[in-house]
């Protein structure tokens, strides 16, 4: 055998998505994603968007089928949990045979307003924040910011707040210190303090009577009252999130990349959503699971540790005629699989020293599959079984999916977690698969359009064929 043939037979060659796919198809898919990512700036808005798209395609809420009293092959069901997580499924066959799930998270690093946020100092009204998830604090200074969320008033009324994403709206800024005066030295975590991430709200007094204290703050409160009917105490029962006011844009002269806030992990949420909508499962039911709070440990009743979807599955089993729910749910879980649809760190030539070039995913080379995540000795990870990875690889190869393996940085360099382990502990076979990014957790992350499209295609093949 010629050495060239031997090399081709024995070695693995990474393939660029751009070499194999139609550029027009990729660009068209990217347009839909950019509309989504510009709207879905919070987990609530991401779930709201998903529900609208699902209902367009004939999905109905679980309550509809509970009233109907049964489910059948071809039925499309969704359930929203506490406004910030979602489970949707296309029924195919006996549920005890298992289901194939794409699981992603819809939260992203951000700043949250504190319960009593508005203060005045030296004639400047500001809003105090608490950062959410792993952020580099300095990246949030002197960039345009928006405010989105809900306020629950004393009478129980829910008020939706959205300031900054309309052309007529003001934006917000957290001011930085000018270089002429900045002589701070030391670790970046010590130089940039979380308590100093205060949002500029205003500088005009409601009255210039010296007896009226904090009159700039009062003016800000009055503006909010006139617009939303809320008072200062209402902030205590609110969820208000500060996010970058930066629309998704093409990057590079070849327009091969997209910069946006929230790629992690709404890029996998969108690809999972569109894959489920178009899926025609052959062997098992196909499902999408969107969770919250991954960036802070997946806790709470909307995070992945709260397996609300299992309760949904028990109800569906009953609707399918099960007479022993507790036994059948065990069979369902053990026969199910989940792609932990989360992003990974792409090899960046500007920061070569933190990557293992042989194992780091590259921009434009397809969906990145990570057998494990975790940190330092694979701590806190689901290390996927070889048998499951082998079956997935076979399905992807047989259906022309362009994929690459990857891990999150060099050994002992860092690491990170996903939702994978919380489903593996329930008996599912789980592996991480998603889009590789530059600048993960920054206010303006970068992804390849090619990887965006290929991840959608990979999820659709998985839902159809596994």
Automatic annotation (TrEMBL):
E.C. no: 3.4.11.-
Keyword Signal (UniProt): no
Alphabetical list of Gene3D superfamilies matching this protein: Aminopeptidase i, Domain 2 (2.30.250.10), Zn peptidases (3.40.630.10)
Xref: InterPro entries: Peptidase_M18, Peptidase_M18_dom2
Record-level GO cellular component terms: cytoplasm
GO biological process: proteolysis
Record keywords, A-Z: Aminopeptidase, Hydrolase, Metal-binding, Metalloprotease, Protease, Zinc
Recorded coiled-coil stretches: none
Cofactor(s) the protein requires to work: Zn(2+)
GO MF annotation terms: aminopeptidase activity; metallopeptidase activity; zinc ion binding
Pfam families from the UniProt entry: Peptidase_M18 (PF02127)
PANTHER family noted in UniProt: ASPARTYL AMINOPEPTIDASE, M18 FAMILY AMINOPEPTIDASE 1-RELATED
Family: Belongs to the peptidase M18 family.
UniProt protein name: M18 family aminopeptidase
Species in which this protein is naturally found: Marinitoga piezophila (strain DSM 14283 / JCM 11233 / KA3)
Lineage: Bacteria, Thermotogati, Thermotogota, Thermotogae, Petrotogales
